[in-house]
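ok trying again, last paste got cut off:
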Amino acid sequence: MRDQGKVKRLDLEEDERLCAIAFVKRFYPSMRPELDMQNWPSTVSIAAVPWLRLIKDKPDVHAAAKTYAELVDNEPGARISNFRRIAALENFSAAAGDFAKLSGNFLNHTALQNERGTPLNGDDKDRRKLLLEKLGELEQATGDHAGNFYALLLMDGDGMGALIREHTAEAVTPCLTKFASEVPKKIEDEKHSGICIYAGGDDLLAMLPLDHALDAVTAVRELYRNSFARKDKKIAATISAGLVFAHYRCAFSRVLKYAHELLDDVAKDQDGADHDALALGVLKPGGITCQWVGKFEKFSQNGGHCFAPLIAAYQRDANGEDRGLSSSFLYNLSERFAELFPQPGSRDAHNDVGPDTSQDEPFDEDTLHRLFVAEFLHGRLDKEPAKAEKQRKQAGQLMRQLIAVCYQADARRSTKRRFDLDGARLIKFLALDGKEGAE
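nice, full thing came through this time. structure:
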């Protein structure tokens, strides 16, 4: 294979040895070019989509993007042209050249620094330094950079056996067929720009860019419900979801396993009641950092989701437009209140039932609301009574939204809930597109 020139540097490393089965699995497409095999985009490439979307809408940086693409074009694995297209990257301006076809390894600063993960022609360290410098200039010009996180979505219909027994297979099957045939388009449209890996019956597995992942979950759930809205009789069908916001360096098998745990053990584990729930989790190389679960009726609001107004409030504060949810405020909440609320074991042991939260919570919701408003307005209340009253009203509304997000469904106890500041942590994570710190 090497003598025929069919082995590229990224296909087989110099010190890598393969057994016969592994060899065939890896090189069968090279041996059978008539198959026109397509590759899935890498996780680091999916994570870079929000930044690429931003660049697409910034004509003033297209020339610089084209120059950078030409600079890295001959590097091994730099240009990916044969993969399932991501809708947001279609119709990129010709002024940007082939920038939209670059691998995420050459768009992500951390990945480009990795000599083993992103090899260059030769061992010229000055060459890598130059590429990092040019990528940094492009990041500075856009005021942003490629992120490290993507989303993996796993969804499954609830109580399918009971649904079929109640309405018959003849009634349910066309509804499932309709959903399975339409959901790939929903996942892969321009807004969501995801990749539908599998859609069959009431099951779905998809990869999504971080910025519109929650919107995609909402849209898929609505599509599922509408698929059962027959002309003669509407079937009340529900679906549950596990959504992982994963760092691109986490092994995909680990991410998929956690998505199954979120779906099967958190979203669906609601004491045998109707599920219709969504479980979210953030997975970094060091482990699970926060987790949230709630019913879709709580999560979906006015065609959007419950995190949307809080994310907007955080972004307004960060941009200096308005007094919203600052990073320091959310940090102070965690410092002052987190230890007061009993949690169900460690984050990696999320199957632990934990205490009966209906009895063990230290504050009722009204008291909690007053405490949060006081913390939010501390040192900032205007001396003029009319303005101060307006501040209190705005703060009160914002804190109600925040507290509502922080109350989660309690696993294994469908009638109970628990207060958990992971909801606040998720707001910050989502508002920053997972780009907090040096992750």
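cool. The chain has 17 helices and ten strands. Residues 316-439 form one domain.
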